[in-house]
């Protein structure tokens, strides 16, 4: 239920060559239960070469709270998505900046849910994102995303926040300005984490939102090669995180080699028992996550553990490759 005196909220969306996704994205953010006169939507068109801007303009004809900002230059040396969001934040009027991506679809109560949680003493909130798709590969990716986000949610609830999700997060405008915005944050291909780190390092309150009403959906990558590029980008930014993240990632990567070593050097029954325990334990964990978010349980939930063990070893080597990070048709150095 909407508040009687809701805050003004600005939805910020960076878009680059998102013609195929823009319609579904806008249908979601413009069909909200939140009062339309209490929120505005800003689309930053990042030098798109397709019809992204044309799709936005079609919606503008009937939506007075929808705005399009062509982004043709870099602000203060900023690059990529951080550059777009920095420019959108400068024109946004809202007390709260709610950030998502052009390839994301949000539910009708999305803004309402965030506004409700900002009534508490919190300065930045990160939500959860699930993946569309019916293929086994898509379902495995979805299980992977939900595992990571649920673990982050648990740590945040214990007072040990890990990161924010760039396609489903919100921050008070006053907090954003107080930390200097993206203009004062070191460039990273994971700009969401850098903003999160600036906010939490300055002592501002962070909250994690695991609520069906704020659950956003995006699309899975189509090929394993695209998955490797995606994970390389994430890991490049995440390795600037605290030592606990780096340690946890490395331990996950080494779990499968450790089991194989035990099988060859000691007794195969020992690693088999450890593997089955880890597998069953994670299935129980994920079933609770799917239930909380009201998601249909599927093969990805049950097959995720062996899939992730193999992928983590591959990701470890991909992380060490000296090649540039690719994102939205652009390449960035490490």
Automatic annotation (TrEMBL):
Pfam families: Glycos_transf_2. Its main location: membrane. Keywords: Cell membrane, Glycosyltransferase, Membrane, Transferase, Transmembrane, Transmembrane helix. It is found in: Cell membrane. Residues 10-174 form the Glycosyltransferase 2-like domain. The keyword Protease does not apply. GO terms for molecular function: glycosyltransferase activity. Gene3D superfamilies: Spore Coat Polysaccharide Biosynthesis Protein SpsA, Chain A. InterPro entries: Glyco_trans_2-like, Nucleotide-diphossugar_trans. The chain crosses the membrane at residues 254-280, 301-321. GO terms for cellular component: plasma membrane. This is Glycosyltransferase 2-like domain-containing protein. It comes from uncultured Cytophagales bacterium.
